[in-house]
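Lecture notes, continued. The same structure-token format from the folding unit now serves as the input rather than the output. Read the line below as a description of shape only.
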């Protein structure tokens, strides 16, 4: 705003100077009764006044354009700025559309994950029901087997009763076989469902490193970041992900800062383990925790333990 006010004041002053100089030049030309192109001195002074005013105005604008960048932009770059602004507005619209599309894709993936989880829970409940029926049938079979043994031991019982018990035994055995097959099928379905999603189990140790004592905070942060980067590369290779910028490892800033603080300035070497905080579902990022202990010698080589 200060530059605009300064330009405005300069234009006011230059306008006065132009009027004054034009009048002075016209007066001198009129007094000397100079002629131009055969015109009368009166008209010659008017033309000289106009030309001098134009030249002074042009010189003023030229000097301001050379001295001040804002004047150059206002004179020659306004159209370019307008075009650039339109391009930026168009880019913003494109980015907003991409953001909306990403939100829709995220919602679809969340819905798909919820459906798979619900289906897995339903299958687990059905497996529990079948397992209960199988246990009940085994108990029934055990009772029938006892009755069969008792009937077989007692020769005084009729052969018809024995045949009935044998048939009951066969029926129960067939039912147990059917239930076992159903259990096997349900287990295969659950394993197939989960194997397609779970890549890594919660609590699984991903890697472990030993860090030196008396490390600065920057050194400790660099070591932990390097370990996390190695795990990220391992996961990308395991999942066949070719995107070099893909980040599959996630840890809260508070946990990371706490681990850095524990390593910084430690008097003993530290053993740092990286463990999965929860099951890794394919398509999601892995949440990890740091498990840090003093790296101390417990037993020496050749030492008798017991």
């Amino acid at each position: 705003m200060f530059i605009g006010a300064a330009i405005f004041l300069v234009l006011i002053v230059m306008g006065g100077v132009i009027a004054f100089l034009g009048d002075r030049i016209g007066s001198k030309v009129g007094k000397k009764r100079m002629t131009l192109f055969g015109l009368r001195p009166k008209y010659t002074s008017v033309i000289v006044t106009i030309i001098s005013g134009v030249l002074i105005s042009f010189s003023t604008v030229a000097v301001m354009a050379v001295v001040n960048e804002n004047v150059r932009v206002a004179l020659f770059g306004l159209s370019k700025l307008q075009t650039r602004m339109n391009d930026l507005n168009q880019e913003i619209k494109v980015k907003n559309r991409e953001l909306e599309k990403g939100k829709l894709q995220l919602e679809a993936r969340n819905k798909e994950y919820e459906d798979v989880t619900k289906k897995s829970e339903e299958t687990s409940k059905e497996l529990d029901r079948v397992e209960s029926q199988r246990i009940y049938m085994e108990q029934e079979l055990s009772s029938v087997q006892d009755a069969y043994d008792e009937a077989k031991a007692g020769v005084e019982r009729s052969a018809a009763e024995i045949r009935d018990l044998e048939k009951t035994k066969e029926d129960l055995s067939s039912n147990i076989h059917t239930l076992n097959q159903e259990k096997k099928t349900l287990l295969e379905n659950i394993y197939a469902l989960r194997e397609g999603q779970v890549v890594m189990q919660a609590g699984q140790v991903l890697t472990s490193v030993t860090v030196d004592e008396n490390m600065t905070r920057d050194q400790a942060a660099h070591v932990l970041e390097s370990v996390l980067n190695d795990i990220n590369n391992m996961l990308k290779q395991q999942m066949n992900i070719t995107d070099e910028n893909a980040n599959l490892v996630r840890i809260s800033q508070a946990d990371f800062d706490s681990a850095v603080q524990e390593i910084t300035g430690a008097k003993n070497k530290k053993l740092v383990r990286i463990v999965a905080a929860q099951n890794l579902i394919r398509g999601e990022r892995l949440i990890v925790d740091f498990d840090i202990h003093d790296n101390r010698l417990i037993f020496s080589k050749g030492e008798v333990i017991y």
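Point for the exam: The longest strand covers residues 286-294.
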